[in-house]
Write a structure and sequence with these properties.
- The radius of gyration is 12 Å and the shape is globular.
- It is mainly α and about 90 residues long.
- α1 crosses α3, α3 runs antiparallel to α4 and α3 packs parallel to α5.
- The chain contains 5 helices and no strands.
């Protein structure tokens, strides 16, 4: 699965509940984890409330052990963890 294909899936499915993103971010398959974390990034960018941003931040931190490759670090740390801590 290519990154452009994964990003297309993110556009279609970013509104899934966090609970449904958990199997993606905890998957043994790298591309599924990438999809899950990109969905979290999109959710974080689209949400308007601090409560929801905190929920996404907490969910990401809870699953940080699955951010285990450079590309997963690149897509999550700056756009969720860094963004939340900066604000």
């Amino acid at each position: 699965m290519t990154v452009p294909h994964i990003r297309a899936l993110v556009k279609q499915h970013w509104e899934i509940p966090l609970k449904e993103a958990q199997p993606l971010v905890t998957s043994k398959i790298h591309e599924e984890r990438l999809l899950g974390f990109l969905i979290l990034v999109k959710k974080y960018q689209k949400t308007e409330t601090e409560k929801e941003k905190k929920q996404i931040f907490d969910f990401t931190v809870k699953h940080k052990k699955f951010i285990n490759n450079w590309d997963l670090v690149d897509v999550t740390v700056e756009h969720i963890i860094g963004a939340y801590l900066f604000n």
